[in-house]
Amino acid sequence: MFLLQANTTALFSVGELQLLAPELILTVCACAVLVMEVVLPYKRGKLTGYFSLIAVALAGASLFAQWYANSYLLPLTGFYGMVRIDGFAIIFKAIFLIAAALSIAVSLRYLDIEGEQRGEFYALVLFATVGMMMLACGYDLIALYISLELMALTFYVLVAFTKRERRSNEAGMKYFLLGAFSSGILLYGMSLLFGVAGSTNLGDIAHKINEVLNAPPMLEGAPTPLRPMLLLGMIALAAGLFFKIAAVPFHMWAPDAYEGAPTPVTAFLSTGSKAASFALYMRIFIEALGGMRADWAPQLGLVAAITILVGNWAAVTQTNAKRLLAYSSISNAGYLLLGLVAGNTYGYVGIILYLLVYTLMNVGAFGVIIALHRRGIVGDRVDDMTGLAQKAPGMAAMMAIFMLSLGGLPLTGGFIGKYFLFGGLLQRGATEQKNWYYWLAVWAILNTVVSFYYYLRFVYAMYFREQPADNRPLALSPALNTALVVACIGVVFIGIYPQPFIHAAQALIGALAASGVVALR
Amino acid sequence: MNIPHLLSIITWLPTIGAVIILALFKKDQASAIKKFATAWFGLAFVASLGLLWYDRTTGGMQMLEDHQWIPLIGARYQMGADGVSVLLILLTTFLGVLAALSSWNYIQKREKEYYALLLFLQTAVVGVFASMDLFLFFLFFEVSLVPMYFLIGIWGGENRLYAAIKFFLYTLAGSVVMLLGILKLYFLTQDTTITAKIGQATLNVVAGNQAARNLITTTLQEATKNGTGTFNIMYLQALGSALPMGTMQILLFFAFALGFAIKVPMWPFHTWLPDAHVEAPTAGSVILAGILLKLGTYGFFRFNLPMFPKASADEIAFRLPLIGVFGVRHVMITLASISIIYGALAAMYFVVKRDGDVKKLVAYSSVSSMGIVMLGLFALNPNGINGAVLHMVNHGIYSGALFLLVGIIYERRHTRKVSEFGGLSHVMPGYAAVFLAMAMTAIGLPLLCVFISEFLALRGVFEYKPSWAAWGALGIILNAGYMLWLYQRMFFGTIDNPKNEKLTDLSGREWAYMLPLVIMSLWIGVYATPFLRFIQQPTNAVVQQVRPDYPLPGRTQTPERAER
Fold it and tell me: Which of A347, A511, B121, B383 is at a distance of 20 to 30 A from A27, taking alpha carbons?
């Protein structure tokens, strides 16, 4: 049937294929990795990893070319409106590629130690990246859902990748069950939205929703007829997405999955997957459901407040570093939600900057944990960091910077991200003249103080205790070191001189056709 | 004489030194590191002497620097200092040398990191005093926590982990709320209904001189060009005068006040201080008491009073059953008075207590002393504020000295319990003499520095309300009580503890860092005019802001004119 159609009218043009050039490059390379896996002997398995890094670099180059060619940032659509390349898509894709590159770099040596140096790993990472990138540029519920599933399915496998490891299997199972469940809820929400709008295109849905909301009631004083259905759809969508970003009360899977998964996968899951889910969140809630802001903003605000509380306080008692960072990642989902609640340029710039910084600092933190993982030493407890400042001063200093940045201390990128998120809230409070925005900001910022308590536990283990936990050398590799140094420099650079990043985020976010976007002034 | 980029040089010189230490020295070169670090602190002090060319007759913000930094959020790299900043920066660099010198024997491990952190800390603190941009100020203000956290946590006493984290979280809690206040103020600079009300006269008052006035103008032009607000502190102060009195101004006042009150610390936010002091190494205590506490009072002087003038002077905002109508000013003065009395009583308790710790005593005496600073500030008249600012400097001198003295005896005996000592004047006459000088300074003996500042501050309070001054005076009496008592128990009588019989008197190095403090105390006590002349003009500007109708004596007869 496709062929038949293609003969009569072209299904798509070559120009449209160019829109997806980065994704196509990654897909082809991922397939090539699978072939290489079979051809190469096991000892050469690492080559597939380096090849994947090159693939990511190529995709990045083509993404940059897209940005460069389209400097006015006009949104380009293709495939019957299913794909939309705008500034929003480009900046998110850049974040995913950074996350993928760093995660691959930190996993090279790790897989050797685990004895699982297989090409599938890198292929799966690349496929997951493709899914994420499609999420950022999808403009149609179907396309979005398929991309989401592509990402999720590869992650189910990745989480359980170390198959001899029980924790990993258990984590994969849990993640799969809950993830599938949440996908179902999400799909339900999408179907309701389709039922109201009669279209799966986000732009059409937005139009239709505005029509529905502004339609004159049939009877004087009667509610708008389709409104309850819309609300239900919105809530189902929100719940499904809360699962994906690990927001309370749908956060239960995160600590188990993060702890059990191989550490590089945890790093990728906590950064790439979270950023992708936020891209989806923004696409659906700002573009499609932007007209219902008054309905979802308070709901999101409440969830954000609870998420920040639970994430931060639960992290305080953790002794396992990966689990601790899982709770920290939950609380960070809460902070990121604040940007959506704010829903103005400050908020959006905050989300993007924070996601970028979060990717760098979180992969960095997990990278240090990976360096502690040696044959026979799991190395994922906070206590395993003890005395690191004596044994590996550079590594300890970088970890300290990542931790202070996660907390949001000035001069690190984390501060700049949080600065914009809170600024957005205050600005929104002033424009809407509603006080709860202010109190939400106060609540969130007071909870960052709690977060410093557990982030500083790493610092105090590394610096204040002098006897190293063990005398074995760290599992370092050139790729890991480079990744850590790059992440660390990025975090500090964004903290000290964020101007170019703010500028880029602001320019690219300008393309986001959002209701209620106010100029950054 | 005007040295270009002087403030930046003073601020960043220590960081350069720290980087040199980290990069060029090896771990085991302890003796070279400490000599180099001390010399470098000396260099920073010499550089800071350039500030003495601050033009005291013109006043206002001088040594200005202005560079593009993050135009998209309106943050600029702006530096500037008025007389108050100049004195506090000089105090910082001065105490920095002494702190480094005092650590030579005390610090016996990880010297490389130690001196690097001390240098980093100095950069952060000087940056706080020298910033003319609120965003920059906040950066320095927050970052100053980190080196201190490490200093307490690595080189502290037994309970250092607890003290370090408590110090960090406590002060952080205050400053994050301040961050929200800063953001809100920033957005207000874009609110044309408020900015339209800012008068030229106000801008002239906050700037103080033409160069600073021009800086405001260019900053505003840049901000308009980029479509952003501004963080310029002078402009924000002017904005404060135009801000209508109401819930928002009061909330903003308290958002800032919380951050600074924890730093000061005022009762009931003081509990981190004794812990931090007891655990910190000597030099850490010196910097903590001598300088870090001043960040809080400096914040009140620089931000709370001029930026929220109506809230600061407010006396009718709240109403409670039984108490009746009261205002923000009453709240602050009450807290200050409680701090004075409470700090003094707590200090007294540690003289009597069986295992009373001298360091804890000095820490509580700081709470009491900073209460006097706060009391003077909220007198809101020139005398009160002059006294308060001078008292900041004096407190830096005498509490720094007392902590150094405690450190000296701790190095010899490895204990700080009052009950362990007695009759020390027989074996350590030099030490006893210096301690006496400093104890007398703390008490406020005339001809020593604290007398001048306490007298001025309390005179200001007296002008406002005699009954409030009575509380301050009571605190001073209590101060005298515990100091004399402590001195008697430690230095007089016979040596009843055999361990004290062989103690050696001050060494040359110890004399070298104690004598300058004694001399400073005497100098300010005998002839404070040169110091007061630095403070005078900024103080008058603040008073003019807070109470536009105040009949400034400075206008008709300043001590300066009287001299001529």
Answer: A511
* Partner-chain contact B165 A430, CB within 8 Å: no
3-class secondary-structure state, position B268: coil
Q: In this model, does residue B448 exceed pLDDT 50?
A: yes
- Number of residues in chain B: 564
Q: CB–CB of B145/B292 below 8 Å? A: no
- Exposed/middle/buried for B304, CB within 10 Å: 0-12, 13-18, 19+? buried
Interchain CB contact of A496 with B (< 8 Å) = no
Give pLDDT, residue A88.
85
Instruction: Tell me which chain B residue has its CA closest to the CA of residue A424.
Output: B183
Whole-number pLDDT of residue A496: 94
CA distances A448 to A305, A308, A361, Å, are 12, 9, 16
The confidence score (pLDDT) of residue B561 equals 40
Do B127 and B4 form a contact (C-beta atoms < 8 A)? no
Per-residue model confidence as pLDDT tens digits over A241-269: 999 999 988 898 999 999 999 999 999 99
- CA of A261: how far to CAs of A46, A158, A268, B306, B353, in Å? 20, 8, 10, 55, 56
Q: Residue A78: phi, psi to the nearest 5?
A: -160, 175
* B303 pLDDT more than 80: yes
**Run of H or E residues at A77:** strand A76-78
Kindly give the interhelix angle for B160-188 and A413-432, rounded to the nearest 10 degrees: 40
Q: Is B446 helix (H, G, I), strand (E, B) or coil?
A: coil
CB-based contact A464 B138, cutoff 8 Å: no
Strands B62-70 and B75-81, bridge-based pairing: antiparallel
R_g of chain A, CA atoms, integer Å: 22
Residue appearing with tokens 């104690």:
B514
- CA dist B164 → A216, B155, B159, B490 (Å): 63, 11, 9, 29
pLDDT-based confidence at B419, cuts 50/70/90?
confident
Check: complex ipTM more than 0.90: yes
Within a 10 A sphere around the Cβ of B522, how many other Cβ atoms?
A: 15
Burial class (CB in 10 A: 0-12, 13-18, 19+), B172: buried
Who contacts A426 (Cβ-Cβ below 8 Å, separation ≥6)?
A: A437, A438, A441, B180, B183, B184, B187
**Tokens 């941009």 identify what position?**
B133
* SS3 state of residue B251: helix
- Say yes or no: A499 contacts chain B, CB-CB below 8 A: yes
pLDDT band at B520 (very low <50, low <70, confident <90, very high): very high
| Cα–Cα distance, A403 to B149 (Å, whole number) | 14
pLDDT at residue B458 above 90? yes
Stretches where chain A sits below pLDDT 50 are 1-8, 513-521
A497 touches chain B (CB under 8 A): yes
Both tokens of B483, joined, read 């100091």
Q: How close is the nearest chain A Cα to the Cα of B172, in Å? A: 6
The phi, psi pair for A222, rounded to 5°, reads -80, 150
Contact between B180 and A430 using a beta-carbon 8 Å cutoff = no
Pairing between β-strand A83-85 and β-strand A76-78 as defined by DSSP bridges? antiparallel
Name the token pair of A210: 């505005």
B69 touches chain A (CB under 8 A): yes
What are the pLDDT digits (tens) for B136-190?
Answer: 999 999 999 999 999 999 998 888 899 999 999 999 998 999 999 999 999 999 8
Q: How far apart are CA A103 and CA A365, in angstroms?
A: 11
In this structure, chain A runs to a length of 521
**Tokens describing residue B549:** 């109708």
Q: Do A506 and B168 touch (CB under 8 A)?
A: no
Query: In angstroms, how far is the first alpha carbon of chain A from the final one?
Result: 53
Strands B62-70 and A83-85 come out as unpaired
Question: A410 in contact with B at a CB cutoff of 8 Å?
Answer: yes
